[in-house]
Amino acid sequence: LTPRSRRYVLCEVVSEEPRCRQCIEDRAVNLAVRDAVGRVHGDYGLACCSISFTVKYLNAYTGTVLLRCRKDSYRLLCSALPFVRQLESRGQRYPCCLRTLHVGGTIRTCQKFLIQYNRRQLLVLLQNCTNEEERQCIQKSLLSCSLTEEQSRSGDEDDDDGTE
């Protein structure tokens, strides 16, 4: 597959259980998403989505998940994501859902979107500060939001076909 034939789906794990984010793993997200696709779209949808599907990035601390799939099946994938109701890890089940934040043609476009999204979230927190110490901490975080260039870039990030 060429980089132009892929889509990257940026999601956020939403859970009221505080331990959920700390315990999520790539494998658990992969299995939960595949299960949801199978329930919603059956064997055909599962087969379409399984080709080239992978969890490219998972940040358990922030609950950010980046999924990769083929361009022609990303709509099937995105339509099944709201049906993820739990993640299972280490024998425990955690009720949660996946909120789709952005669909991009490259990892880089998703990174840029995530920076802007986090900046907006920090601004909301800044408006809701109760004391000066909180305000200064959030202002410092806002100023540190940036995308840094890496020395070696993978092929996933090089090509951007402009569709998102």
UniProtKB/TrEMBL annotation:
Keyword Disulfide bond recorded: no
GO molecular function, a single term: ribonuclease P RNA binding
Main location: nucleus
Location in or out of the cell: Nucleus, Nucleolus
Source organism superkingdom: Eukaryota
Entry keyword annotation includes tRNA processing: yes
GO cellular component: multimeric ribonuclease P complex; nucleolus
Keywords tagged on the record: Nucleus, rRNA processing, tRNA processing
Role according to the record: Component of ribonuclease P, a protein complex that generates mature tRNA molecules by cleaving their 5'-ends. Also a component of the MRP ribonuclease complex, which cleaves pre-rRNA sequences.
Family assignment from sequence similarity: Belongs to the eukaryotic/archaeal RNase P protein component 2 family.
Protein name from the UniProt record: Ribonuclease P/MRP protein subunit POP5
Species lineage: Eukaryota, Metazoa, Chordata, Craniata, Vertebrata
